[in-house]
Amino acid sequence: MSSLALKGPYWVTVRQHRKALWWTLGLAAVAVVALVTSRLWSDSAVAALRAAGCTVSSENPTCFQPTRDYLDDQWNARHIVEYAAMGMLVLPGIVGAFVAGPMLARELESGTYKLAWTQSVTPTRWLAAKLAVPAALVLAGLPLLSLAFYWAWRTGPAHDYPTYWYEPNVFVSYGIVPVAHTLLGLALGAAVGLLVRRTVVAMSVTALITGAALAVLAWLRAGLWPVKTITGSSVDVSASADWRLDHGMVTATGERIRWGDCVVTPDVDARQCMTARGGVAEFMDVHPASHFWPLQLVETGICLAVAALAILLAFRVLRRRHG
Known about the structure:
By secondary structure, this protein is an alpha+beta fold. The chain has helices spanning 8-16, 18-51, 64-110, 113-117, 123-155, 168-171, 177-196, 199-220, 270-276, 292-322; strands spanning 228-232, 243-251, 256-258, 279-287. It is flat.
């Protein structure tokens, strides 16, 4: 990574951590190559099946092996996308741990920060540089990685081995949430690094706190935007694009009763049980696919607000301890 255009503490930060930054860029490139490979692998599987004159539903005995090879290839291609999604899921914790440990706590622990502060660099500028460099890398690179993931996921083997937009690892892998989560991890890492001032401990605490924060967000996600309630005599629960949250029946008074509340026997099915309890119409609470962006925007706003508070805390701790 060239640091010729950088000056002062920003140049020093890049020089200090150039190996880690190069490794980051290298891993991002590997992830993009893997996603492209997944997409090409999926396409080649489709082409091979067509060349054999077969379809997945074909009953011709000669199509058994081509169909099996096709499904195996699609399964492997989908696995690559899922591994990429898991990487995006843990990325905020990794970034936060790096900022908390090697970038901040290590300098505070070893005392090397004092050298920078004797070179006409104030503590505030020093911390700003430590945060600006990884933040710039996140803002420049992560949207591209997110787009690559969306392309591979959306156009890959979705029909044979589907994953849906509302699944936790997929939701955090494209759109604007990946950037917001990673900036949150960075901010939490800065606050923890300045508070703890011990490299290994700071990295561990940051990973734990970031993981807990993202787990809470995942738990709250369904309630971040008003759900859509579908009612009728027979509600279709097979619409895969909808994030189904609750399903049951309503009584004439509007009370909700749920399928799980009924005891089903060989002589009484669930619908008979629900009707006997006063159910007159089915209901289903869903987030349709159109709620993807509202949910992303609300979650992003929460992440950025918490990140701003963490950064403010970091600067306050720095001023209190070092003036």
